[in-house]
Specification:
seven-stranded mixed sheet; globular
Length: 280
């Protein structure tokens, strides 16, 4: 097999600027090797032998229409786990949900929660488990989960809801028995989220760089964890202010433990490590 010549500095600059403009994702020079490696699959698929030819196609009207989503799929990072950063789910159960129930319980309003940057679905399905357990002992409590990502590839996997059994190791055993279905073929080592839980989550593609997120109702809780680390500070600030605009009064945003709002002009107050509440 012929080796594709390295991407030129000029083409890398054009592509990195384009990725930043379309997705908000930083692609500094140190990531040139990673970008080359990830795009090789697209070059082979489209039978291009040079990165320059691929980029010319990408920037063409046909490329924007047909290839842009494919390119975004391969350059975005999608790492996630069930019950990742478990302290967040404890705080959700112990503080946020009881407070919300105290305020809205008698109104019949559904809690609305958004997993923003849901990747392959582990986070929204974890939320569905946690909220289902909470609802069992609280008649009348109801909720809706919206899960979005920029990558169509991970959204397809999330909607399928099939996972290697080893991926579900962080799920507590009682919840595994209740919410995971084993494959009839025991040798394949896979499980699937039960239908009742799958029906609780609505998946949708969303690019954070879009001016309109298409959300027409205010959100009570936003989980956007380990996402903004890929953006520069101005983009982080713009995005968090857009999240703030979609939050209900006193709504909460859960960020990743490696992320901070320090130095950003966003009207949110920290109420717990990497958990913020709308200042209203």
């Amino acid at each position: 097999m012929e080796t594709t010549p390295p991407i030129s500095q000029r083409d890398f600059n054009r592509l990195s600027q384009f990725i930043y403009r379309e997705c908000g994702i930083k692609m500094p020079p140190a990531k040139i090797t990673m970008l080359e490696a990830r795009l090789q699959k697209r070059l082979r698929s489209l039978k291009f032998t040079a990165f320059g030819d691929y980029i010319e196609y990408l920037f063409s009207p046909d490329g924007i229409k047909e290839e842009l989503v494919q390119m975004i799929d391969v350059v975005t990072t999608n790492k996630t786990d069930f019950f990742r950063e478990p302290d967040h789910f404890e705080y959700l159960l112990q503080r946020v949900l009881p407070e919300w129930l105290l305020k809205h319980g008698a109104s019949g309003r559904k809690l609305k929660i958004w997993s923003a940057g849901c990747s392959t679905g582990e986070e929204p399905y974890t939320l569905a488990m946690v909220l289902s357990e909470f609802a069992e002992s609280r008649p009348g409590f109801d909720f809706r989960i919206l899960a979005t990502d920029i990558s169509t590839r991970v959204l397809e996997k999330a909607q399928l809801a099939v996972y290697d059994e080893e991926r579900t190791a962080p799920v507590p055993l009682p919840l595994k028995r209740k919410y995971l279905l084993r494959s009839r073929d025991k040798s394949c080592g896979q499980v699937r989220i039960v239908p009742e839980l799958r029906e609780m989550v609505r998946f949708s593609r969303l690019n954070f760089m879009e001016s309109d997120f298409g959300l027409r109702e205010q959100i009570d809780i936003i989980f956007c964890r380990n996402v903004i680390i890929y953006f520069d500070r101005p983009t982080q600030e713009r995005l968090l202010n857009k999240f703030h605009a979609h939050l209900a009064p006193h709504g909460h945003i859960f960020m990743g433990h490696s992320e901070t709002l320090n130095g950003l002009d966003v009207p949110l107050d920290m109420v717990h490590p990497t958990v913020y509440r709308k200042r209203t």
